[in-house]
Amino acid sequence: MADSYGTRINKYLSEIGHCSRREADKLIEQGRVTINNKIPEVGAKIGRRDKVRVDGHLVSAPEEAPIYLAFNKPVGIVCTTDTKTELDNIIDYINYPSRIFPIGRLDKASEGLIFLTNDGDIVNKILRARNNHEKEYEVSVDKTITPEFISKMANGVPILGETTKKCKVEKTGNFSFSIVLTQGLNRQIRRMCEFLGYEVKRLKRVRIMNVKLDVPVGNWRELTDEEITKINNLVEHSAKISHKKTAQKEEESSSKGIKAKPKSKKPYFGKKPAPGAKPKPGSRSRSTAGKSPKKPSSKGRRGAR
């Protein structure tokens, strides 16, 4: 079946532009991927002669040129390639003639700039949190913004078991501010505001690295050659810095005789069941598909170039 010395199946699906690695793992877990007509495990590797199928369709590397799009996502659209279960998915909304997938995510309740591509290599580089790529947002909240709020947001807020990195925050109105993040924690800005007693009313991403949002809601445009070159330079530079820091840490640990501790399993804090008692079946959350937001008539190829 799969070659143990080949390429991981999730990496392969990402590199050929089928989907991101994360989405590939989900497809594998759902049993929708086969290698030589057999369902593989997550982490399986493939060789050159292996036949990979998704939902029964043979997939292979595309012969077309790389695609890089800047899209102004409307509120209500979900950043997923799962077109079967999510009606309001970004792929069907854009309806691009070639296979593409989003780089990262933007909450369903949020709007603004997101990249889409068929280049799996650049996706993995951009999504590395340690690369410190800037993303700028415009945010509106439900209460008057105070100097204390700005200071706390800028210096770090405890969410999801860690304190957020220091960031640039500027008040732009009594109920609005701009923020530049170099992290990508789940619903980070909303959680930060919630911790400080604020509720986000509107969240719009207006910049990713060197690319600014400059198309109307629901429209897309192709990235320019200059923008793509700059992005590649940024990810290459940050990757070198990251590798250098990692090497320094390993060298320091080696000189001190420190060995890396193996990862331990998280302790179980649940209640111990009574002798002979059967565990209660887990409950599944149900998601309801709402109505698809109305698509602008001027989307797609009318995006500025």
Structure description:
By secondary structure, the chain is of the alpha+beta class. The protein is built from seven helices and 16 strands. Among the domains are: 52 residues, Roll (Structural Genomics Hypothetical 15.5 Kd Protein In mrcA-pckA Intergenic Region, Chain A); 155 residues, Pseudouridine synthase. It is elongated, with a radius of gyration of 22 Å. The relative contact order is 0.13. The C terminus is likely disordered.
CATH class identity of the domain at 68-222 = Alpha Beta
What fraction, in percent, of the residue positions are helical? 25-40%
CATH architecture of the domain at 68-222: 2-Layer Sandwich
- Based on CA atoms alone, the radius of gyration comes out at 22 Å
Strand percentage lies at: 15-25%
CATH superfamily of the domain at 68-222: Pseudouridine synthase
Structural class: alpha+beta
User: What's the total count of β strands?
Assistant: 16
Dominant shape: elongated
Element order: H for helix, E for strand:
EHHEEEEEHEEHEHEEEEHEEEH
CATH domain topology of the domain at 68-222: Pseudouridine synthase
Termini separation comes to: 45 Å
Multimer state: single chain
Report the biggest beta sheet as strand number plus sense, adding barrel if it closes: 9 strands, mixed
SS summary, helix count: 7
Which spans of ≥5 residues are poorly predicted at pLDDT below 50?
258-273, 279-292, 294-305
Task: Output mean pLDDT.
Answer: 81
